Amino acid sequence: MALLGVLGSIVRRLTDAKVQQVTTFADWVVEVLLLVQLTTGTYIAVFHPWGSSWFAASMAPYLWSLVKFAPDISFLATLPLTLKLHLLNFYALVGIFPFTRLVDILVAPNPYFWRKPQVVRWYSRPREVVQ
Q1: Is pTM, for the whole model, over 0.85?
Q2: Using CA of residue 74, residue 78, residue 80, residue 83, what is the dihedral sign?
Q3: What is the CATH number of the domain that holds 72?
Q4: How does pLDDT run across 50-91, given as a tens digit for each residue?
Q5: By CB neighbour count within 10 A (0-12 exposed, 13-18 middle, 19+ buried), where does 30 fall?
Q6: 35, 79, 105, 108: which has the fewest C-beta neighbours closer than 10 Å?
Q7: What is the rounded CA–CA span in Å between residue 59 and residue 53?
Q8: Could you list the residue range(s) of the whole structural domain that residue 83 is in?
């Protein structure tokens, strides 16, 4: 369902003129990273169903080495390439997250659920909408 949601979001960004106006390069980077993350995660779940055993043997010690501030990537050497890509992509998402509009979800309590609709005012002239 998350994969369908990201694909729907990408289609909306490509087809809706109003959304295209406010879409930034960072938005596209996040969309691509989310698509790669969900695709690799789905691939791992389908083609490497033994995840619970390698998590205990490889990922848990690796994560513990991160907690101790002494990263040891040797635990990841035997993992499939897809899993390594999945992990690297996660780090890229975490790294870009603070520089995108997604950081707004960290606001607690989140006022977006009960706020009144807002009027958006442009401080610069927006691009023309082609309809």
Answers
A1: no
A2: negative
A3: 1.20.950.20
A4: 877 888 888 889 999 999 999 999 988 888 899 999 999 999
A5: buried
A6: 108
A7: 10
A8: 2-113
